[in-house]
Design goal:
Elements (H helix, E strand, L loop, with lengths): L1 H14 L23 H11 L11 E5 L5 H18 L4 E7 L9 H11 L11 H15 L2 E7 L1 H8 L2 H12 L4 E8 L10 H7 L2 E5 L4 H15 L9 H12 L3 H17 L7 H22 L2 H11 L7 E2 H15 L6 H14 L3 E6 L5 E6 L4 H15 L2
Parallel strand pairs: 1-4, 1-5, 2-3, 3-4
Antiparallel strand pairs: 6-8, 7-8
Helix pairs in contact: 4-5, 7-8, 9-10, 9-11, 10-11, 11-12, 12-16, 13-14, 13-16
The structure holds a DNA duplex (33 and 33 nucleotides).
DNA sequence: CGAGATTCATGTGAAGTATACCTTTAGGCTTAA
DNA sequence: AAGCCTAAAGGTATACTTCACATGAATCTCGTA
């Protein structure tokens, strides 16, 4: 009987018209054929990078701007165009795009260079080689090929925060040793104050040119949403006011277009799942919750065990603020005993708490309680309904 | 009463350790001449 | 003798530990009005 129901469900699913015509258009990986409200920045970047078509070395560029202001998009758009032109004219130009934030891909010097070398088709083991050696492999790989290499380092602030600014210095210096090829760096950062803590030498070489991406305002966001939704959705699916609301939500923060698009997409998915024919404003509220939930849940699930236990300890306090490191550590140790995990030292747990603050699943700030010492005060910005959900996911994954 | 000293709990940096993985080298075994 | 495989030696990156010192405001202390 259940089987029959299931078959019926699938048949229904097929019969049911999707609200989407082309969902990919709303996904963050999508690069539209035309970028609106970023003409100035686009031209600027194109001008700066164009010399590589004449096989001259362009200046290194630094792109600033808050999340969702089109930095990555612009960079990708230009890389695609450059690559096509280069291919047509048989020019040796290679562009490597690396996201330094994606955990474990490029969060240390070794891993970054290793990743670069891998992009050039070299096999690099995850550990064991001297970093120097990996540099050599990378160097010889490009030197042999005689190419213009553009390295786009997305979220470069994360990398430097974790691994220091020597990496960038080294990368810029590689050029001196290359005879045939040349390297140009394109750094992308969300942190507007990023270069302030940079070694002056690194700073001057990295930001020979700088482009600032201002946030979109609500009207621009609406334009973007309209444009994309034209191809993404079937006609007449969007109720009036939906786009405006999405734009308003995203503009409320700081003009984050990625967020606006995601809201719209998820709202569509929710409407579709409920077998509704139109996307209405209520779906957007629902979408906002779901996005936050998915984001946090995804991070939580992919964390290593120790981090999960720590987080579980934090969540087991039935309050959302005023939690201190010492208390967490006590609970953490007990939890470790129950799970059968060797507890880490408080020193390390302290660092883990800091890491999770960076990930944005908790807020931790160092406070002094005067006579009663100094500690991190942790607070949760997660709604309580979600806390339970996360806690149970953690318990499941830890086998509690 | 107020300025300066004290205190607490833990932040934070540096150095050391364990583990996992890599390359090189030396020895042993096999094979072909 | 040459070639090939294997195991040991020597080296590295990373995650973690150990050690030692730094922090900073509530609280205490003590001199002064």
């Amino acid at each position: 009987m259940a089987e029959k129901g299931l078959t019926g469900f699938f048949e229904n699913f097929l019969k049911k018209d999707s609200l989407f015509a082309k969902k990919a258009v709303l996904q963050s990986s999508y690069t539209p054929g035309e970028i609106i409200h970023r003409e100035k920045e686009l031209n600027l970047l194109a001008n700066i990078l164009a010399p590589c078509l004449r096989l001259e070395k362009p200046s290194n560029v630094f792109l600033y701007g808050k999340t969702g202001t089109g930095k990555t998009l612009t960079a990708k758009y230009i890389s695609e165009h450059l690559t096509t032109i280069a291919k047509n004219k048989k020019l040796a130009i290679k562009i490597i795009h690396i996201n330094c934030k994606l955990s474990k891909v490029a969060d240390t010097e070794y891993r970054l260079i290793a990743q670069l070398a891998r992009e050039l088709g070299k096999e690099i083991p995850p550990t064991g080689l001297p970093t120097e050696e990996v540099y050599n492999i990378f160097n010889s790989a490009i030197n042999k090929e005689n190419i213009q290499l553009l390295i786009v380092l997305d979220e470069i602030d994360q990398l430097v925060k974790r691994a220091g600014d020597e990496i960038i210095y080294n990368l810029t210096r590689i050029n001196a040793e290359l005879k045939h090829s040349q390297i140009t760096l394109v750094g992308i950062s969300n942190d507007l104050l990023f270069t302030d803590h940079l070694d002056p030498r690194v700073k001057s070489s990295l930001s020979e040119e700088e482009i600032v991406f201002p946030p979109y305002n609500a009207l621009q966001l609406q334009d973007i949403l309209r444009k994309r939704s034209e191809t993404a959705f079937k006609p007449g699916v969007l109720s009036p006011g939906v786009i405006e609301k999405c734009a308003a939500y995203a503009a409320r923060e700081h003009g984050d277009a990625r967020r606006a698009l995601e809201l719209l997409r998820v709202a569509g998915e929710i409407a579709e799942r409920n077998s509704e024919l139109k996307i209405i404003i209520d779906h957007i509220d629902e979408a906002e919750e779901k996005i936050e939930k998915d984001r946090v849940l995804d991070i939580v699930k992919t964390q290593p065990k120790q981090q999960q236990v720590t987080l579980h300890a934090i969540l087991s306090f039935k309050k959302t603020e005023g939690i201190f490191t010492g208390d967490i550590y006590d609970v953490y140790k007990k939890a470790c005993a129950r799970v059968g995990l060797r507890p880490l030292t408080q020193r390390r747990v302290s660092d883990i708490i800091g890491e999770m603050d960076m990930l944005g699943i908790i807020n931790a700030r160092v406070i002094s309680k005067g006579r009663f010492g100094r500690t991190r005060e942790i607070s949760l910005s997660i709604p309580s309904s979600l806390i339970h959900k996360i806690a149970s996911v953690l318990e499941q994954s830890l086998g509690l």
